[in-house]
Design goal:
This protein is mainly α. 79% of the residues lie in helices and 0% in strands. The longest helix has 29 residues.
């Protein structure tokens, strides 16, 4: 079962989720974009949320600031989280200014806000689950654009099931405790819904 839990944690890793969400969003919903523009948006999201973080992690490992790919300790997470905040704020600004893609903009800003709270919680020695923040953020993101476009309830149910599976996997792997899981889920769900009323 441990191998299954590890596989779930890898497949639902927070660096993959924004690209998956953006890909579904761009391919399914009736957006006023040409195919070329949709590909451009997708690759901007892919580069900002997957390629740049992985290159940053690689560089930090080379420099010795991070010992493992999981960045398990609070100290190891500080620099990557701050860099990710800047990255998501930049992504949100680009999406908002160039294409007025409201839902993707909310996803970017919500992730940045969640990471800001995560970085502030470092000072209380609390490690929030980034896996749960990402997965719950995906659910919150889907709830936001589902309300706008009449998205199927089956999709919501699937994401809730995946959220439960991921929480179970993180707990069984002893990567987080219940408090850290709850913090991640709460931030991931609440922030996109709040921003939906603000932006």
């Amino acid at each position: 079962m441990i191998k299954l839990y590890k596989a779930i944690s890898v497949l639902l890793h927070p660096v993959f989720l924004p690209s998956i969400g953006a890909g579904i969003y761009l391919s399914v919903l009736p957006l006023p974009l040409s195919p070329a523009q949709k590909y451009l948006v997708f690759f901007i999201v892919l580069g900002s949320t997957l390629i740049v973080p992985l290159l940053t992690l690689f560089l930090l490992r080379v420099l010795g600031s991070v010992k493992t790919n999981q960045a398990e300790t609070i100290q190891e997470r500080k620099i990557p989280v701050v860099l990710m905040i800047v990255n998501y704020l930049f992504l949100g600004r680009v999406l908002q200014d160039l294409w007025q893609l409201r839902e993707l903009t909310i996803l970017a800003y919500a992730t940045a806000a969640g990471l800001v709270v995560t970085s502030l919680m470092f000072y209380t020695k609390t490690k929030i689950s980034l896996h749960m923040l990402g997965m719950a953020g995906m659910l919150g993101f889907t709830l936001v654009y589902g309300a706008n476009y009449g998205y199927a309830n089956k999709t919501i149910a699937l994401l809730v099931a995946l959220l439960g599976c991921l929480a179970t996997a993180r707990l069984q792997l002893k990567a987080h405790n219940v408090k850290e899981i709850v913090w991640g889920v709460s931030l991931g769900l609440i922030i996109p819904l709040v921003l939906a009323f603000v932006l």
